[in-house]
Amino acid sequence: MKWIVRIIGALVLIVVLVVVGLLMLPADRIAGIAADQLRKVTGRDVTISGGVSMTFWPVLGVRAGELEVGNADWAKEGAMLSTTNAAIGVDAMALLRGEIRITNIEAESPTIRLESRKDGRASWQFTDASGDAQIETATSPERAARPVTIEKLNITDATLIYDAEGADLVSYSGVDLSLDWPEASGPADLRAVLRPAAAPVTVTARIGAFSQFLAGEVQPVKATLTAQAGKASLDGRAALNGAVAGKVTLETGDTQAFLAALGQPGMALPQGLGQRLNVTTALTLTPERQLSLRELVADLGGNTLRGAADVGLNGTPQVNAQLTAGALDLSGLTGGTEGAGSGGSGDSGAGWSKAPIDASGLAAFNGAIALSAESINLGALKLGASRTLLTNDRSRMVFEMREVAAYGGRLTGQFVANNRSGLSVGGAVQALGVQMNPLLSDLAGLTRFSGQGDAEVSFLGVGQNVDAIMRSLSGKGAVKVGRGTIEGIDLDALLGSFDVKGGTTVFDSLGAKFTMDGGVLRNDDLLLLLPNFNATGAGQVNLGAQTLDYTVTPKALRVNGDRGLAVPVRISGPWADPSIRPDLKAAVDLNFAEEKAKIEDQVKQKLAKELDLSPQGGQSIEDAVKDKVEDKLKKRLLKILE
């Protein structure tokens, strides 16, 4: 029993000695040694001030009113970390042995400033540190030194400022950071919660051999970024200087919401061009922020692209990419899949779409993208196998068709979408050997015309919706077609019976030039050749209002002697259901001008004889008849007044 009492007494004495020893430890000296060790680890000035006191619970250590870690000597701004409330925890057993071993650091509401330069320098790289910081104590100067380790780091409600040269300043508030590094030679787990917008963004990472990572060596990294409506992950390797390589996956259910959560609002993307994302790639990022993507597979929410890309991330991304695709739908860039309005085709009569076109995505990047696709849907145009080049410079995108199969023929030229100061679209396109029926149907909803031929057009339209663009179109063009047909009118039958109801006109060739201004297309040189006939045409097509006012004049070459027979046909009204009727008065003027003149002369002579008219001084028969009638009325009026 005595031995038990003696053992308990000894234990109590030890506890008392430990507690007394801890209570008598000088807080200022511990803080000074800790600051010196942190200075050796980082190579930066470290100051702990503002009133230092010992803490025993929940962590043994010191609490300081102010803690500041200096920035790199080339940095523009102040300290890399500054806080008015910091706690430094130490290892109690090591402390009793006269050693200062930092186990954890806590900081509340600090300001963290990070800077990087295009030459690869980064303020978080401690290249001027000794790399072998050792514990130094007065009680055992000859004892083997031990490296400083920080088992835990907790930072709450921080303000994080990131200044990357060539990019906009980034500042986040309410940031929480934590580090769990239990073994000095082992891996570390990091977690960060940022709030660029209302919703939190969480980043977690595990870095192997964290001490070597801090020394600048490349280490294995697994990281995940989770935000509203999306997640990104990395499985690869990284270094403290910003070099990263590995497999990256990105998934978003709503890309706009995902970007908004990252503090990038206003990045609305067209349908099929990134509203949803499922991307995998082999990524390489250099310290100079040059990004390389290889083995890229990107599902953009309906369109899938494969290939490789190089992207400069200093400011607006600078892209150089080579991509391939199957069936590619780019109709979202032109405001929808309909070729002629909100109701579908132009024959619907519903008019053009007035839905706003959001072209803000044109500001998302600069650069060039070479694209090969099995087919491309541009909304107004449907292309086959295509080899194209897309370039974008400050919200001005140029789509160049280098080798494009379309409508049974070939297309060359370019389309331009410019959103620098309001949206405008334009282009210059040449079509060789194309089928006119599907081409005109897609462009303007016109389905009555068919034939194979060549065409060229240059155009410019301005507006924030398809309707405004079509009503503002200007430009010019020409068309030349071989054998073809015009549905809805039989010009051959017309010359025999004046019947224009239905039928089909078969022609041998057609040629015309046109101009456009204010959404109205005008032409006055149409020439249509038919067997035994020809036809000319002149008039206008109001592209904005989808109406026609055009006159076609077919002429039979082997009737009416050598003069032929011409019957003008006026086509007017909405192009969905135009009115087609012959102009008989114009037909008489064209075909019987001599006969009309003789008959008019005979009628005038007859009237002069019957009415006893004697025109005076070159007076016309019509004026003489008018004067004669007035004279007779005057005489009748005088009789009434007598």
Q: What sort of overall outline do the alpha carbons produce when their principal axes are compared?
A: elongated
Number of helices: 11
- List how many beta strands DSSP finds: 33
Which strand order spans the largest sheet, edge to edge or round the barrel? 2-3-6-7-5-4
Q: Which structural class do the helices and strands define?
A: alpha+beta
Strand content: 35-45%
N-to-C terminal Cα separation, in Å? 167 Å
Q: For the CA atoms, what is the radius of gyration?
A: 43 Å
Stretches with pLDDT under 50, minimum 5 residues: 1-24, 129-146, 337-348, 636-642
Largest sheet: 6 strands, mixed, barrel
- Measured as a percent range, the helix fraction is 10-25%
Task: Report mean pLDDT, rounded to a whole number.
Answer: 77
Describe the structure.
With about 650 residues, the protein is α+β, with helices and mostly antiparallel strands. About 20% of the residues lie in helices and about 45% in strands. The protein contains 11 helices and 33 strands. A 6-stranded mixed β-barrel has the order 2-3-6-7-5-4. The longest helix has 22 residues, at about 1-25. The radius of gyration is 43 Å and the shape is elongated. The chain starts with a helix and ends with a helix. The relative contact order is 0.04. The model is unreliable at about 1-25, about 130-145, about 335-350 and about 635-640 (pLDDT under 50).
